[in-house]
């Protein structure tokens, strides 16, 4: 009996999956749709687990999975099989976005924490404009009229509001159905230019510039967390620091970037 190599088995599996996609997209075959949902459902548990790792323990992981399922269904419906993007990459971004949308709707973060986040954003942007460089923790604490220890405590509290916050940088300019995830910004050479291509290009440039201007360690955290898929604990092992310290670095990076984006949005809205 002829044995197939692992590589050959994967090719057969990919071919079968491609047939499922084509059957669903061309014929709106609901049986094929259900099979695709079942095939990709492990992505939901994976993404929900990663999101849950950065949330308070009172958030039920089962609820996160339920939210993520809706994201998976939406992703399967909207996925363009002609684009040169793996569904896993696209789907995980959509699943993550659906989970965050539901968490945001529940408003599980206290208003006082959100208010402090806005104050911290304002402090970072004002200090950067005034000093023409990235401010130190001591300078930020002085601007907020608090101790450095209090600033670190605040950053730890705000870490819960920063879950997948890099996605929010792109979501800030539209209604729920109009939002754009990071994966949607991947260039498609076959796609027609949208009417707002210039504005999109401007916003991408702002985000890229904001990342480039981050302190080196914060830049590394952003790269490892969002683009390499490492957890905060794993990043801590890479950098040789504690997970809580990585969480603080992540939060500071997100706050700086969100402040920069808000400035850019105000500028674009006045044009």
What can you tell me about this protein's structure?
With 271 residues, this protein is mainly alpha-helical. The protein folds into two domains: 100 residues, RNA polymerase sigma factor, region 2, helix turn helix motif (Rna Polymerase Sigma Factor, Chain: A); 133 residues, Arc Repressor Mutant, subunit A (Orthogonal Bundle). The protein is built from twelve helices and no strands. Helix 1 crosses helix 2. The chain is elongated and about 60 Å long. The protein starts with 5 loop residues before the first helix and ends with a helix. About 8% of the residues have low confidence.
Count of DSSP strands: 0
CATH fold-level topology of the largest domain:
Arc Repressor Mutant, subunit A
Order of helices and strands: HHHHHHHHHHHH
Count of domains: 2
Which CATH first-tier class of the largest domain would you pick?
Answer: Mainly Alpha
Shape: elongated
* CATH superfamily descriptor of the largest domain: Winged helix-like DNA-binding domain superfamily/Winged helix DNA-binding domain
Strand content: under 5%
In short:
With 271 residues, the protein is an all-alpha fold.
Give the key terms.
Rna Polymerase Sigma Factor, Chain: A; 12 helices; 271 residues; mainly alpha; Arc Repressor Mutant, subunit A
Secondary structure layout plus pairing:
Elements: H1 6-27, H2 30-52, H3 61-78, H4 87-106, H5 111-131, H6 137-144, H7 148-158, H8 165-171, H9 197-212, H10 216-227, H11 232-239, H12 243-269
Helix pairs in contact: 1-2, 2-3, 2-4, 3-4, 5-6, 5-12, 7-12, 9-12, 10-12, 11-12
């Amino acid at each position: 009996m002829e044995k197939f190599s692992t590589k050959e088995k994967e090719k057969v599996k990919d071919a079968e999956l491609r047939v499922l996609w084509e059957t669903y997209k061309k014929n709106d075959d609901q049986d094929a749709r259900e099979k695709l949902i079942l095939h990709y459902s492990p992505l939901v548990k994976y993404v929900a687990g990663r999101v849950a790792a950065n949330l308070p323990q009172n958030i039920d992981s089962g609820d996160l999975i339920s939210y993520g399922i809706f994201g998976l269904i939406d992703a399967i419906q909207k996925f363009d099989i002609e684009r040169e993007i793996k569904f896993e990459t696209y789907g995980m971004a959509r699943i993550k976005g659906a989970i965050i949308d539901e968490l945001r709707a529940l408003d599980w973060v206290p208003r006082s924490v959100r208010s402090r986040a806005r104050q911290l954003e304002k402090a970072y942007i004002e200090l950067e404009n005034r000093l023409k460089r990235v401010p130190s923790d001591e300078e930020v604490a002085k601007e907020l009229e608090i101790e450095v220890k209090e600033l670190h405590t605040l950053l730890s509290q705000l870490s819960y509001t920063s879950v997948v916050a890099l996605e929010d940088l792109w979501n800030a300019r539209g209604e729920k159905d109009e939002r754009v995830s990071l994966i949607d910004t991947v260039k498609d050479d076959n796609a027609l230019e949208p009417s707002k291509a210039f504005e999109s290009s401007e916003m991408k440039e702002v985000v890229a510039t904001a990342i480039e201007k981050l302190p080196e360690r914060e830049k590394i955290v952003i790269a490892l967390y969002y683009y390499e898929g490492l957890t905060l604990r794993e990043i801590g092992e890479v950098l040789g620091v504690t997970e809580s310290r990585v969480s603080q670095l992540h939060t500071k990076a997100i706050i700086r970037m969100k402040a920069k984006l808000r400035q850019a949005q105000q500028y674009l809205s006045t044009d």
